[in-house]
Amino acid sequence: SSLLRIRETERVLRVCAQAFGIAFTLTFFVPYCPSRWVVLFGTILVPLSLIVEKQLFFSLVSHLHSRGYGLQNVLIYGAGFTGRRVFSALVSSPKVGLNPVAVIDDNASLAGRRVFQYGYRHERWAPVVQGPLTPLLMQKWGASLVVVGIPSLPKSRLDEIARSAFDSGAKVAFVPQLSFEADTQTNYAVFDGVLIASLA
After folding, report:
1. Res. 198: pLDDT tops 70
2. In DSSP terms, which residues pair with 45 in a beta bridge?
3. 56's torsion region: left (phi>0), alpha (psi -120 to 50) or beta?
4. Cα separation of 82 and 61, whole Å?
5. Parallel/antiparallel/unpaired status of strands 186-191 and 194-199
6. What is the tens place of the pLDDT at every residue in 20-52?
7. I need a labelling partner for 55 at 20 to 30 A (CA). Which of 5, 24, 32, 109 fits?
């Protein structure tokens, strides 16, 4: 029912329709060709089988995630606009296997509040916990990944967060600024629009 799954289904139907148009046209020009009924049934069965397969796979992944298999607990740093969008994106993409358990923010006035998923129904939410990020906090929430949702965060502060996460054996991903200077001790790599940080 998600927008991404609707688009995937639309692509499957579009490609099958295009393939049917090409194959059906070829039956008039190629002397030795399968029956046009075979082409028609294939055009109906192939997308139907793919849609059923996708639904079964999605149900299986959701069932495994509900039992805790294949899930990675995530802490989101920043309860502002970007942090909330990151939370909503992770919650709306269960196949990724990233489970946001809490949102960290240095603003003490935000502690105790909740960050809700964008949408008409606020089905998922996460508590806002006062920072700073520490290995003890990482251990408490069982998180193995920290996503920094503050693009304007100073690089020195970002390095502090990365060090705290690395001390807990966790990884760090963050929404990148438009520009930043390379660090001599921390390596950064771009992956799917976010930066993954690791020790040099």
Report:
1. no
2. none
3. alpha
4. 27
5. antiparallel
6. 888 888 877 877 777 777 777 888 888 888 888
7. 24
User: Residue 103: pLDDT band by 50, 70, 90 thresholds?
Assistant: very high
Alpha-carbon gap, residue 67 to 61, rounded angstroms: 10
pLDDT digits (tens, 9 = 90+) for 123-158: 788 899 988 888 888 888 888 899 988 888 888 888
* pLDDT computed for residue 76 by the predictor: 92
Query: What is the DSSP track for the chain?
Result: --HHHHHHHHHHHHHHHHHHHHHHHHTTT-SS---HHHHHHHHHHHHHHHHHHHHHHHHHHHHHHHTTTT-EEEEEE--SHHHHHHHHHHHT-GGG-EEEEEEEES-GGGTT-EEEPSSSS---EEEEEES---HHHHHHHT-SEEEE--TT--HHHHHHHHHHHHHTT-EEEEPPPS--PPPSSEEEEEETTEEEEEE-
Instruction: Provide the residue type at 122 as one letter.
Output: H
- Note if the pTM is more than 0.70: no
- CB-based burial, 26-49: b 16+ in 10 Å, e otherwise: eeeeeeeeeeeeebeeebeeebee
Are 99 and 43 contacting, i.e. CB atoms less than 8 angstroms apart? no
